[in-house]
């Protein structure tokens, strides 16, 4: 007796074997949790996705910048929804529904692809391979909301990336508004917290009173420590990476802390369609966190430091220096490198900019050492003022 035959006529040969290994009874999850769609259900899903993307308020606007929309719509042409993860699921506050969907992509036909939600744009689809084992392995890092396992501890997340987004003025909003914008992105969980907490204060699986009371606890959980750089942290929707937005002197920085997941095919596609994507992003960033990063233009600290070192950037030296300082965050060695770059300049005005940065960063040792070397009277006075108790 042959394998069960899948209805899709343009299928690759591997599809029948994958269907046989993973499909359950009609409308029921198979062994890997996927519910395969009938031909009618697939067409309905495809029509729904395309009608949604055609609206002016389409999810593409939330997922990815406008310059990539044409490429995303082109990649959706002919894509076939094949299976879903069953019941619709939501984030921890039940504000965002997500519907993981398995697609076939005629433009990339050698394997299947997982979208963490059916409206996730194709450049953010996860390669799923051709077998039941590869499909299960591809989705395994993102299975958390379907289990009762705890989210990973924030302090235990081993990798981090920091990206300068721009000033509050450039982003057209104050910090509170920017934080709410991140809270509304499809790639983030809806429950944020402030610098008062080193760890996520929200329950992993709020239910009942905890769920109803989340709105009342929001101001308390978003509280800031006096003197700290204002920061708001959220989880990514499925893997539990942390997304932190901070504003040092109105210079806004995005930090992603995550456990690595290899998706080598995703970043090259994003880089091709998004010229403004921050340079040097790691290829092991999970796709739910990468979806947040891909929504913005920005710079990492190394690129900003090169701008500081570039003589042609002198008119913007103070701006780039402050952006670099904000992006370096708690990296003391990197901050010392930045301050040394300013401290070694012949131009006393440029040295003075470095002293302002050091004062802002409360880097007293650098200021003391600079005072011993400085010869320009105005800078000497500024240094003494910065060093006063």
Q: Any overview of this molecule?
A:
By secondary structure, the chain is of the alpha+beta class. It has helices at 14-22, 39-54, 59-63, 69-76, 132-139, 168-171, 175-183, 208-212, 214-221, 266-273, 287-293, 301-309, 317-328, 332-343, 348-360, 364-373, 377-387, and strands at 35-36, 80-84, 89-90, 97-98, 101-104, 112-115, 126-129, 159-167, 193-194, 231-235, 242-248, 251-258. The strands form three sheets. The protein has a five-stranded antiparallel β-sheet with strand order 1-2-5-6-7, with helices on both faces. A five-stranded antiparallel β-sheet has the order 8-12-11-10-9, with helices on both faces. It has a two-stranded antiparallel ribbon with strand order 3-4. Helix 12 (301-309) runs antiparallel to helix 13 (317-328) and helix 15 (348-360) runs parallel beside helix 17 (377-387). It is elongated and about 85 Å long. The protein starts with 13 loop residues before the first helix and ends with a helix.
């Amino acid at each position: 007796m042959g394998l069960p035959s899948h209805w899709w006529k343009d299928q690759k040969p591997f599809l029948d074997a994958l269907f046989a290994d993973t499909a359950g009874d009609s409308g029921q999850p198979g062994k890997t949790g996927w519910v395969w769609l009938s031909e009618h259900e697939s067409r309905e899903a495809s029509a729904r996705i395309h009608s949604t993307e055609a609206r002016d308020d389409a999810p593409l606007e939330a997922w990815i910048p406008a310059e990539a929309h044409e490429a995303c719509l082109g990649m959706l042409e002919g894509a076939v929804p094949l299976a879903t993860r069953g019941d619709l699921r939501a984030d921890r506050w039940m504000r965002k529904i997500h519907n993981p969907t398995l697609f076939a992509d005629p433009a990339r036909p050698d394997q299947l692809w997982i979208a963490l939600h059916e409206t996730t744009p194709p450049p953010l689809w996860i390669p799923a391979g051709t077998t039941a084992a590869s499909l299960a392995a591809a989705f395994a890092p993102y299975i958390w909301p379907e289990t009762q396992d705890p989210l990973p501890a924030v302090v235990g997340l081993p990798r981090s990336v920091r990206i300068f987004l721009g000033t509050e003025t450039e982003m057209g909003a104050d910090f509170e508004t920017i934080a709410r914008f991140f809270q509304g992105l499809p790639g983030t969980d809806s429950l944020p917290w402030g610098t008062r907490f080193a760890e996520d204060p929200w329950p992993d699986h709020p239910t009942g009173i905890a769920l109803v009371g989340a709105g009342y606890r929001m101001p308390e959980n978003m509280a800031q420590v006096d003197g700290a750089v204002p920061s708001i942290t959220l989880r990514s929707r499925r893997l539990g990476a942390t997304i932190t937005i901070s504003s040092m002197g109105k210079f806004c920085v995005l930090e992603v802390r995550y456990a690595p997941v290899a998706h080598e095919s995703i970043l090259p596609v994003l880089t091709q369609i998004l010229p403004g994507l921050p340079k040097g992003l790691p290829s092991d960033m999970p796709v739910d966190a990468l979806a947040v990063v891909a929504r913005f233009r920005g710079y990492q600290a190394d690129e900003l430091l090169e701008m500081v070192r570039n003589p042609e950037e002198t008119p913007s030296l103070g701006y780039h220096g402050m952006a670099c300082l904000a992006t370096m965050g708690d990296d003391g060695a990197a901050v010392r490198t930045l301050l040394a770059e300013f401290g070694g300049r012949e131009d006393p005005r440029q040295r003075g900019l470095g002293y302002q940065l050091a004062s802002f960063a409360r880097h007293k040792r650098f200021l003391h050492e600079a005072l011993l070397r400085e010869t320009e009277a105005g800078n000497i006075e500024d240094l003494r003022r910065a060093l006063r108790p």
